[in-house]
TrEMBL record:
Organism placement in taxonomy: Eukaryota, Metazoa, Chordata, Craniata, Vertebrata
GO cellular component, one term: ciliary basal body
Single biological process term from Gene Ontology: microtubule severing
GO MF annotations, alphabetized: ATP binding; tubulin binding; tubulin-glutamic acid ligase activity
Keyword Lipid metabolism applies: no
Coiled-coil ranges from the UniProt annotation: none
Stated name of the protein: Tubulin tyrosine ligase like 11
Transmembrane intervals: none
Keyword entries, A-Z: ATP-binding, Ligase, Nucleotide-binding
Length: 231
């Protein structure tokens, strides 16, 4: 409908199968009619998003950010955000999507589980280099170029808070169904993985929230957290 109303609008879409993980089954399309249906849409639903074609690049590579967020309490709403995260890089120099390169997953998809199989994947013991780096190393690099990293971090915190607020009503329903009001229950928490992409203008864009993010450790480094309590 949007395309009919605006013929000049020529987006690329990214299709993610429901219940998928580690980049499995993700692909790009130019036309909605190109969606590959395996079985019925009821048995294999998918999330379709407009693909962000102009991301911030580092070393000519696309990357995204994984931040870990601890949801400690719903009432009051209490959130802890790790002060550092991961930057996961593609392994092929980025080009805006065309019909000729839509299939090049190492160029468009940042998933670590995919890119580790690329011949260009760089393993590094340094947090500042390689195909998987700390987010703080990216912030240092941006700061050296004159970017306002304090504003960027503030925008990311705002994004996380607004997303959690949007999720809270549904989370309360699940919580209260397991632990009815007025009855003593266990103290529980949840760790969420926020996947964020930076635009060229340093605007953070939420890609998705992982309810069961990977906790695999390759490097140990103590980090601080930001506490957010909303009354």
């Amino acid at each position: 409908m949007m395309k009919d109303n605006n013929p000049s609008w020529k987006p690329t879409f990214i299709v993610k199968p429901d219940g998928g993980c580690q980049g499995d089954g993700i692909y790009l399309i130019k036309d909605p009619s190109d969606i590959r249906l395996t079985g019925s849409i009821q048995s294999r639903p998918a999330v379709v998003q407009e693909y962000i074609c102009k991301p911030l690049l580092v070393d000519k590579l696309k990357f995204d950010i994984r931040l870990y967020v601890l949801l400690k309490s719903l009432e009051p709403l209490e959130i802890y955000i790790a002060k550092d995260g991961l930057s996961r890089f593609c392994t092929e120099p980025y080009q805006e999507p065309t019909l000729k390169n839509l299939h090049q997953v190492f160029m468009h998809l940042t998933n670590y589980s995919l890119n580790i199989h690329s011949g260009n994947f760089i393993h590094s013991d340094s947090v500042n280099t390689g195909s998987k780096r700390t987010f703080s190393s990216i912030l240092c690099r941006l700061s050296s170029r004159g970017a306002d990293v304090k504003k960027l971090w503030s925008d990311i915190i705002s994004l996380v808070i607004k997303t959690i607020i949007a999720l809270t009503p549904e989370l309360k329903v699940y919580y209260q169904s397991d632990i009815p009001a007025g009855k003593p229950g266990p103290t529980c928490f949840q760790i969420l993985g926020f996947d964020i992409l930076l635009m060229k203008n340093l605007k953070p864009v939420l890609l998705e929230v992982n309810a069961n993010p990977s906790m695999r450790i390759e490097h140990e480094q103590e980090v601080r957290v930001v506490s957010v309590i909303l009354e």
